[in-house]
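User: Predict structure, ligand 1-deoxynojirimycin.
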Amino acid sequence: MDQKIIKFPDNFTWGAATSSHQIEGGLVNDWSEWEKSEKRIKALKRQNKNPDDFISGKACNSYELFDEDLKCIKELNLKAYRFSIDWSRVEPEKGVFSEEGMNYYKSVVKKLKENGVEPFVTIWHWPVPLWLKEEGGWEAKNIVKYFTALTEKMVSELEGVTFWITLNEPNIYTLNSYITGKWPPQKKNIFSCLRVYHKLIRAHKAAYAVIKKINPFAQVGIAAHNNFFEAYNNRLVNNIFKGLADWGWNFYFLNKIKNHQDFIGLNHYFHNRINYGFNKNDNELVSDMGWELYPEAIFHCLQDLRKYGKPVYITENGLADREDKYRPWFINESLKNVYKAIQLGVDVRGYFYWSMLDNFEWAAGWDPKFGLYSVDRKTFKRTPRSSAKLYSEICKNNEVIAE
Ligand code: NOJ
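Assistant: Predicted complex:
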């Protein structure tokens, strides 16, 4: 049988992504404290869940075992690796930066560069240090100043980093932390949510200016969590809801920062068919988390970003699939859709699979398995799933086998 091969553009950036709180271990921040809090433990017990399965603890122990991660990065033939800074590790006390914490990230960057892997560094991927939590977290009066100082420190000291992602998924963070109350600080207050959202916008703009001042060649963006919203049918009401969802969820933040970014990072997971304001998906296939697997959705999200006229990096895309049943198919199909968008003129420069390792999936704890590698919870041994082999071939050959 003839194989149809899709060649990606030269220099396409193949990567995988992680975040500090989800893999490093040993952190002391608002999340680590919340995970162990009485309120949280009681809530989990009420749901007959074992609180130990919801504590990040040593996580994947990447703080001590980055060399093991590096082996995976090399085995996967990655050209780039996305990781994040944990704010509490580098600034455990207000205004006091920890040399040990800084050295950890410096060594990560150095090892990546020595191995020809481009670091994509996320400055903030959700948790905040305890001193900042005490001041109100993202509601703190001086939060923009604090975030700018953190950015300035990281950019001046992490030499050789070109790609900076200031913020990860501001919409998901504000939704879960300030509306649904699923995440710390568990507020359910629309005003707090809007306040924080606008502080995040200001923080990004300020950080953008600081980064460009220190390194005019830096490439700066956010990782935006965008969904493919589709009207369930042709009813006007559903089209109106689709338009509102696009505006509020997908584009509001990006519109506000459109003149303060060099690329757009797209984190993509969801397809939502909207019927009278509610989701009505077919859900023919779902991941272990019950999220619909619909690889065409990424094509539409990419098309929608074309209007910004900026390069796009898919900074996250993946699924929870413990048995690796759908992952190989999902990766292939998603990449076919990425390629289709490229052919139609969207300037997609790279793709980062989420995630390289099974890791701590926030309020869902340790159960969801997003990794190309599984990680033993006791020995921390990383073991490739079969999709790791597939992805390593894709990264090596810069091509996807379409049929
Ligand atoms: C996006 C987030 O950035 C990441 O932290 C999370 O684990 C994945 N989505 C999967 O939910």
